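ARCHIVE CARD
Drawer: 12
Card no.: 0347
Subject: one protein chain, sequence and derived structure
Cross-reference: see card 0346
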Amino acid sequence: MLPAPIAVFAFRRPDHLARVLNALRKNPEASQSPLFVFADAARHDRDAEQVAEVRRLLVDVEGFLEVHVVLREQNYGLARNITSGVSEVLSQHSEIIVVEDDVLVSPFFLRFMNDALLRYRDEARVGSVTGYCYPVKVQLPETFFIRGADCWGWATWRDRWKLFNPNGSELLEQLSAHEQTHAFDFDGAMPFTQMLRDQIAGRNDSWAVRWHASCFLRDMLILYPGRSLVHNIGQDGSGTHGRGDVAYDVALDDNAVTVGAIALEENQQAREAFCAFFRRSQQRPPFLKRAAGAMRRRLRAILGDGASPP
């Protein structure tokens, strides 16, 4: 089976995008992978030059099986750009690997994603795969499942993506009706329910919290590697939501992650480790905290709009 197509989403960060594309090219599977790049248009005049630089960079991209560049003629914003782009690729292909312009990957990223897509393509309960793993304080299994979804370097299948519900109000109503908000918030460790409320109220435009909720409500699982194959380089102030927080920084692992046979169920050890990490990341000493709004921006960076403008 040929490797899955890669969809890269870009806006106004040419230097970040160049690093991301170079990292992808270091994966041996890249030369056999179709690449789709969705470049958003400028929102304001101040974005125009950086957006133009991104587009100049995309004129001659090499190292992939084939390259398809989609230049948005108007500003979509990240949520619409991603959801539309993912749907466009999955109208032609049965699976997809998704990378934003601030997601740096290891040379073993594509192998892991493609191995997982192949192994679990007929397991309807597995909603997606991610290459990122949170920097928890315990050793995790080689791979494991968590209920829900995530958004830093991920992959899914056409039939799973069809279950994405963009209606935040419906998702919140279902979470509340089934008394699932506490579990959705990792036992209160992370206020994802509040993030969903903010999306409904127009205070954010997070596609990812709706993807997470869509999978969570169907008791779907996401496969994680026990060692991170993804590092987010957008926490440098270059995007609207990334403000330099290092709590989620990880070192790219130097080894491949093996996709082996594991139980098709949420790993409780990993879930507890995630809960502990989320609580710890929110209770940092005062001298390490940012401005009053930093927590909300950090949540958006984790499960909202990455570190890119909305």
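Annotation on reverse: The first strand starts at residue 6 and ends at 10. Confidence is low (pLDDT under 50) at residues 285-293, 306-310.
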